[in-house]
Amino acid sequence: MNDVRFSQPVRLRFPVTGERLVATAWEAVECLRGQWPAAAHDGSYRAAYRACQDALDGWRRSADARRAFVRAAENAGLLAFAAVSSSDHRRAA
Fold first, then answer.
1. pLDDT 10s per residue in the chain (93 long)?
2. Do 55 and 3 meet the contact criterion of CB atoms below 8 Å apart?
3. Total structural domains in the chain?
4. How buried is 32 (Cβ within 10 angstroms: 0-12 exposed, 13-18 middle, 19+ buried)?
5. Which residue range is the domain that position 31 belongs to?
6. Which single residue of 44, 58, 66, 80 has CA 20 to 30 Å from 88?
7. Cα–Cα distance between 42 and 61 in angstroms, integer?
């Protein structure tokens, strides 16, 4: 399993621990497993986890994993908008 780099890092803002930059599918999986608020373990969380795992396994593109991760972060209220491209924001809506 190889790590898969995102085209652009995703900047998250956690209430207690502060900001985190997520630049790869593996970092996204770690973040989803270890830092994600339990209340935000919804469908978008599961889709992001699955998309990132699939990207690591070579089944999905990096862009798909990043897009799913951005959507989950937005739904959880963790997304720091400065790090999101306009195309990601339109797709997440």
1. 679 999 999 999 998 888 999 999 999 999 999 999 999 999 999 999 999 999 999 999 999 999 999 999 999 999 986 544 444 544 444
2. no
3. 1
4. buried
5. 5-92
6. 58
7. 22
Q: Is the CB of residue 14 less than 8 Å from the CB of residue 35? A: yes
- What one-character-per-residue DSSP string does the chain give? ----EEEEEEEEEETTTEEEEEEEHHHHHHHHHHTS-GGG-SHHHHHHHHHHHHHHTTSS-HHHHHHHHHHHHHHHT-B-GGGS-HHHHHHH-
Q: What is the pTM of this model?
A: 0.84
- Please name the residues in contact with 93: beta carbons below 8 A apart, sequence gap of 6 or more: none
Return the structure tokens found at 20. 């985190």
